[in-house]
Amino acid sequence: MHLFTKRGKLCLCWTVTVLVLYFWGAHYLTQKSNVDNQIKTVFEDDSQPKDKSTTLTVMPHIIHQMWSFYDIPRTALPWVTSWRKKHPSWKYCFWNSKDVEQLIAKRWPWLLALYKSYPDESFRLNIAKYIILYNFGGIFPDLDIECRKPMDLFIPQSSCFLSQEPTVHRVLLYHWYTTSGMSSSALMGCRPGHPFFKFVIEKLTDTAYILNSDESTGSIMLHKRYLKYMSEQRHSHKGLITLANPDTFQPSFNSGYASLFTHSCQTNSHLNSSQLCQELSRHHFINLHPPPGAFTDRKWERTSQGARYIPEGFLTTNIQTLDNVITGAEIIARMNQIQKETDRP
Predict the structure, then answer these.
(1) Phi–psi pair at 337, nearest 5 degrees
(2) Counting C-beta atoms within 10 Å of the first and last residue's C-beta, which end of the chain has fewer, N or C?
């Protein structure tokens, strides 16, 4: 009888221990990093076999942004906050240069030496965007882009979209006179594993020798890849891309080039009579208020190109002090954890 009592106490203790561990574990899993619930299935790229039922074919509600460090220019804080205010239920992920290097080393090791070899942070930022969007999906705006309307209201015709450079830039700055528009790397959105970004990443070596960031990794290169991708019919209906109207995401031009635009319109007889130059002249080459249909507006600060543009003593804010920010370091750590769990016999 005494033995039974000891056994009974032992069983009771064991049962209580199991229940405590169960409820603690459930609480821990619930409270654990926001990365788990929505991004876990995104960690595997298309080169890995996966259950088709778990493959995301829609754009996940994730906002990515990046700076050289977690300390961002304070001037960018209102624009960063605008994205978080307009999307309270979306995940917000912030990356720095070290995070991206670790991601490339893990997922695209052949690209790491090339990534480090670029002379300027602006080259690397573009590559970071392509890789992050391919691996995780979501939306990636530069820090100098203000969100004016929730992106939930923007329903693209496909699971991937590219913004466009302002028409003024396309014609007067880049002298791109085609009717196909001009893609911009300043704001893009996509589902994870989209074939377009895989195509862009794999072709980066073709333009690695070019010392202009727009032509090597940025908007000019991106639009050429877009035209090539579409012309070769590389896409099924799941691989389509929406090229948004310029006024949808970047209605304002860079006013720092106003004198250049004025000169181009005045000295080029063909441009002088164009509707574009006449419209600019009518408004004295000053930006108008963004149209009601604009989802975002770009402020054209150099907050998209890395910390080398921060003067000494410039005021900064640590992004980690904001609520509900998932850092790239957390995502990398979670990826490593998932890999360990996968490798376990």
Answers:
(1) -65, -45
(2) C
Six-digit token string for 297 = 């507006």
The CA distance from 303 to 319, in Å, is 14
Helix ranges, the chain (H): 2-31, 35-39, 77-86, 97-107, 112-117, 121-136, 167-168, 195-202, 213-216, 219-231, 246-249, 258-267, 269-272, 275-282, 328-343
Asked if pLDDT for residue 17 goes beyond 60, the answer is: no
Mean pLDDT is highest, among 28-32, 133-137, 271-275, for 133-137
Q: Which two tokens stand for residue 247?
A: 């006024």
d(CA 245, CA 165) in angstroms, rounded, equals 9
Position 164, amino acid: Q
Round to whole Å and give the CA distance between 252 and 144: 12
Mean pLDDT within 91-114: 95
Q: Are strands 242-243 and 160-164 parallel, antiparallel or unpaired?
A: parallel
**How many angstroms separate the CA atoms of 161 and 157, rounded?**
8
Which pLDDT score is estimated for 48? 35
Instruction: State the distance between the two ends of the chain, measured CA to CA, in whole angstroms.
Output: 43
Q: Distance between CA 88 and CA 61 in Å, rounded?
A: 10
Structure token digits, residue 330: 């957390």
Specify the pTM: 0.81
* 313-318 average pLDDT score: 74
Q: Are 305 and 122 in contact (CB under 8 A)?
A: yes
Closest CA to 235 of 204, 179, 182, 197: 197
**CB crowding 13-28: b at 16 or more within 10 Å, else e:** eeeeeeeeeeeeeeee
Least reliable range by pLDDT among 209-218, 241-250, 333-342: 333-342
CA pair distance 303, 72, nearest whole angstrom: 8
Give the integer Cα–Cα distance in Å for 193 and 313: 41
